[in-house]
């Protein structure tokens, strides 16, 4: 496993509605889970307002630090949709109308009142960009090299991720296994650390909860190597059982 | 309203479980809504892994850019709980045991098996810190000047926010009003922009949806000034109605 290349992604969530607390974000979790299936680790997320300089700053920083960069939000037809302009600025290119995006919008709006100037805004892309299919609303996502511009509406972002599935080079997916135990995590902190140390290449995370009047915890073991993962999970379960606790396989 | 001071906060969410997609974050939305009630704007959120240097980097950047900084996660008893060490590093201070935190933990664990070395980890604070009450689990939150270290478990974070309510200096809360309309946002993009321009100090956001087979949108107007907000919302509703659309007060 040493020297194995790890592929990483950054994610910039663009939207005043998330920062105001009005809208519960759903894109971090769905993009994180999808990236993991592609063998790509989500390295960092930044949530920024609908302000061009702030988007440029976040996109530039995370694009430099990761192999891929994703954004969600700000690609609709209204005046607060400025993601395309911000990414073009970050890349130092102009904004152009993409002929295939225009054609898709024309087809979509043919029975819905036709193209307007506002709707045509959704055909604007940073120069040199490709489109990411969106069968739902006619407005495509946008790919500029390793930057992927997705919709903010979660179910439209889902469709764009589906269109990208299997297209991105990645490494081994990070596998995980969960060991549940009706115990306070503070009682078994040593066991967790010992199990992690005994199996290099594994990380052991502890996620406590309080349910039905009892405290418990799920211990999540992560590794890119299936055998190492299996060994660490079995070892941790054995250590917990030797300490007189019963273990719930696959978590509580 | 000109020259009115705007108070801002940054938020660093610490946790591999959010970046892996295993756990749906709930803290961004609840902290954002709470901050707004205090008259403080959430300026930016960063989600980073359980890696000390990465936490230090994010905390340092956001603390410099905002009046207040909040963190969630990584203050439990296990080896992956390293937030206190990271914040101490960021502040250039040592880590000490806080006597009142130790006393609270002793009281809480008196009937639960007593204090262990792992549980005592939760009494560690950056030198000079104060505690934020947590009636739930005995483990307190931590305040270091304008840095607030909260639990990752959302309902414990809620209790810590309650303990802080009314304690932080802020400005005028950002008020909002919603105008709903069964229309495609792309049909009324011009009206939105005109209403925003006609009322300086207001922002108009557009949040489209697809429900029961129909497209609609909620238009959210935000301002710190109640009269300006009211005027902008009434103006937008009038413009929409003049265009032949009916409007749903307070949103759909």
Describe what you observe in this structure.
The structure is a homodimer of 252-residue chains. The first copy, chain A, contains nine helices and twelve strands. In chain A, strand 10 and strand 11 form a beta hairpin. The first copy, chain A, folds into two domains: 158 residues, Molybdenum Cofactor Biosythetic Enzyme, Chain A, CATH 3.40.980.10; 75 residues, ACT domain (Alpha-Beta Plaits), CATH 3.30.70. Chain A is 36% helix and 27% strand. The first copy, chain A, has a six-stranded mixed beta sheet with strand order 2-1-3-8-7-6, sandwiched between helices. In chain A, strands 10-11-9-12 form a four-stranded antiparallel beta sheet, with helices on one face. By secondary structure, chain A is of the alpha/beta class. At the A-B interface, helix 1, helix 2, strand 2, helix 6 and helix 8 of A face helix 1, helix 2, strand 2, helix 6 and helix 8 of B.
């Amino acid at each position: 496993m040493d020297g194995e290349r790890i592929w990483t992604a950054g994610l910039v969530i663009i939207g005043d509605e998330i920062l105001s607390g009005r809208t519960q974000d759903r894109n971090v979790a769905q993009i994180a889970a999808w990236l993991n299936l592609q063998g790509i680790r989500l390295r960092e997320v930044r949530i920024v307002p609908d302000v061009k300089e702030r988007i440029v700053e976040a996109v530039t920083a995370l694009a430099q630090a990761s192999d891929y960069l994703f954004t969600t939000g700000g690609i609709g037809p209204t005046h607060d949709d400025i993601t395309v302009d911000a990414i073009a600025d970050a890349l130092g290119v102009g904004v152009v109308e993409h002929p295939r995006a225009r054609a898709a919008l024309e087809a979509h709006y043919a029975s819905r009142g036709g193209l307007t100037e506002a709707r045509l805004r959704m055909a604007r892309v940073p120069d040199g960009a490709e489109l990411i299919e969106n069968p739902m609303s006619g407005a495509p996502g946008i790919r500029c090299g390793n930057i992927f511009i997705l919709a903010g509406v979660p179910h439209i972002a889902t469709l764009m991720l589906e269109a990208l599935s299997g297209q991105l080079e990645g490494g081994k997916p990070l596998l995980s296994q969960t060991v549940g135990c009706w115990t306070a995590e503070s009682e078994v902190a040593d066991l967790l650390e010992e199990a992690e140390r005994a199996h290099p290449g594994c990380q052991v995370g502890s996620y406590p909860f309080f349910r039905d009047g009892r405290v418990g915890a799920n211990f999540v073991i992560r590794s890119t190597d299936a055998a190492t993962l299996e060994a660490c999970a079995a070892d941790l379960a054995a250590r917990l059982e030797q300490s007189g606790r019963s273990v719930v396989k696959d978590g509580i």
